[in-house]
From TrEMBL:
Pfam families: GDPD. Residues 12-261 form the GP-PDE domain. This is Glycerophosphodiester phosphodiesterase. Transmembrane segments: none annotated. CDD domains: GDPD. It comes from Devosia neptuniae.
Length: 281
């Protein structure tokens, strides 16, 4: 089970958002393999449930924008979805990849030695959804190498009731009045705050309650453009990292994130090697 408060020892987790996606891939084996090669500690993936109740790794509720298919995932069986391939949102010419079942991605990332943040995207209507998630994690030997994440804090509370010992991360877009209280209400272990809502007092509140601090930042070109207008958030981010306010940095560009962390005087946290074999991919 990996440390969710590595800032205490001048370490930080680096997470590839949907893998390393700046080459056009997301939620696919090339994205995860590239992220691991660049030094990621974890990758974030997204879950959707098909009509025949199979969990697939895909961000959107529809296939239209990031695959060769069309339609709502919830209205299609996996056999139909498996005929399609992924495509880059920005039109970049890449080789399309399969839309994978969750259990196959778990096995693949197990063999890569990656941890995962598993974001539940669907509105969860009953316990069967969460029971399937937990069962697949256990079967893959990944239960202790995963954070379950969601914008829905009720889901985080419920999955922890279902599977004590599972660790969770709430996703936050807001400047919260009582960050630690919000985190405790959902029994979360980590809270992620997206740029630009992150602030030192938020991190201090969470750390004071023993809760890990994750921060999502956009791609480096986002900041480069704004630097030309005289504002540089990355200067602040460097200060935050050096002050030990952040335990995990999440970004689309894993190589850039690793370099930024190292240049800020921190060490990227590596997960312990997996000793138990995973299922065949």
């Amino acid at each position: 089970m990996f440390d969710l408060l590595p800032s205490r020892s001048r370490h930080i987790l680096v997470c590839g958002h949907r893998g390393h996606v700046v080459d056009g891939h997301e939620n696919t084996r090339p994205a995860f393999r590239h992220a691991a090669g660049l030094g990621a500690s974890l990758c974030e993936i997204d879950l959707r449930l098909t009509r025949d109740e199979r969990l697939v790794v895909f961000h959107d509720d529809i296939l239209d924008d990031a695959s060769t298919g069309a339609g709502l995932i919830s209205q299609l069986d996996y056999g139909q979805i498996a005929q399609f391939r992924t495509k880059a949102r920005n039109g970049m010419p890449i080789e399309g990849q399969p839309i994978e079942l969750f259990e196959n991605v778990l096995a693949f990332c197990h063999d890569l030695g990656l941890g995962l943040i598993v974001e539940i995207k669907d509105k969860v209507e009953d316990a069967a959804y969460l029971e399937q998630v937990v069962a697949l994690l256990r079967a893959a030997g990944m239960f202790e190498r995963v954070l379950i994440s969601s914008f829905d804090y009720v889901v985080l509370r419920d999955i922890k009731r279902l599977a004590p010992g599972i660790r969770t991360m709430g996703i936050n877009y807001h400047r919260l009045v009582e960050p630690a209280a919000s985190a405790r209400s959902a029994t979360m272990d980590v809270m992620n705050t997206d740029y630009p809502q992150f602030a030192p007092d938020l991190a201090e509140s969470l750390h004071g309650a023993g809760i890990g601090v994750s921060h999502f930042v956009p791609r480096p070109e986002f900041f480069a453009l704004r630097r030309g207008y005289g504002t540089d958030y990355l200067e602040k981010l460097d200060v935050y990292l050096r002050a030990g306010l952040i335990d995990m940095l999440v970004c689309d560009d894993v190589g850039w994130a690793v370099d930024f962390v190292v240049n800020s005087g921190l060490t990227v946290a590596r997960l312990d090697p997996i000793t138990s074999p995973g299922p065949a991919v």
